[in-house]
Design brief:
Elements: H1 10-16, H2 29-50, H3 54-83, H4 90-111, H5 116-139, H6 141-167, H7 178-183, H8 192-217
């Protein structure tokens, strides 16, 4: 069954064309405030460690960002099997989100070659975050989805700042990697700026979907102004 949680409309498409970072879900209750506080803490760590090295920041953060979708899909899958009920499209949505975040990682590896130290940080961060997020999802899937929604709000801001760095010449606007051009169906002359734009649009969509999931689990009204999701290639393997 197709996911019926969020359906992008014309207004949302116009607003998200520029992926405005001002889009924000106001926290309601302890669960939301915990999710927001946890996100702000991780944002502080990322800002302190990476500063304006957005390419390297993306490598580490996208490794972590690919975890929630897979965890959520796994638990939702087992829950639906156990209860013998339909998933309303959640599993496929979350699996695609995990794959999409992984493609972000594969793209930025080509842009900013990670050092050995950064590879070690990635392994540690992924191990700790996977265990922590898995337990959080078991305890409160609503809080877990809200955490991801806030994560993606911060991701939109980070990529907006990355665009500013590119536009003002502080970061080189290199040619887009072949894997990115294939996955997002970008033109042959696409540049890094084009990649950041589509990645930011992905994050905006993930933001709205996860906030929508969290709101549904909390029994609250579901917003209907989800950011649109760009079309992706059927295959993820690059054939450059």
């Amino acid at each position: 069954m197709a996911n019926s949680i969020l359906a992008p409309d014309a207004l949302a498409r116009a607003e998200e064309r520029d992926a405005q970072p001002q889009v924000h879900h106001a926290p309601e209750g302890f669960s939301d405030r915990f999710a927001l506080g946890f996100t702000k803490l991780l944002r502080l760590c990322a800002d302190t460690f990476f500063a304006k090295r957005y390419g390297h920041r993306a490598i580490v953060l996208e490794t972590v960002a690919a975890v929630p979708g897979m965890v959520g899909a796994t638990i939702q899958h087992l829950t639906c099997l156990r209860r013998m009920v339909d998933d309303d499209g959640w599993i496929r949505t979350l699996m695609e989100e995990a794959e999409n975040e992984r493609m972000h990682l594969m793209t930025f590896i080509e842009v900013a070659k990670p050092t050995l130290f950064e590879r070690l940080v990635i392994q540690l961060a992924q191990a700790v975050f996977y265990i922590g997020f898995f337990l959080l999802y078991l305890v409160s899937s609503r809080t877990a989805h809200r955490v991801v929604g806030y994560f993606e709000e911060e991701a939109v801001i980070s990529y907006t700042l990355y665009l500013k760095e590119l536009d003002e010449g502080r970061s080189p606007n290199v040619a887009a990697p072949a894997i990115a051009k294939h996955y997002w169906k970008l033109p042959d002359n696409a540049m890094l700026r084009d990649v950041v734009l589509v990645v930011r649009a992905d994050e905006a969509h993930h933001r709205d979907v996860n906030h929508g999931f969290a709101s549904k689990l909390a029994g609250r009204p579901i917003p209907h102004d989800a950011a649109p999701y760009p079309p992706h290639a059927d295959e993820i393997r690059s054939h450059a």
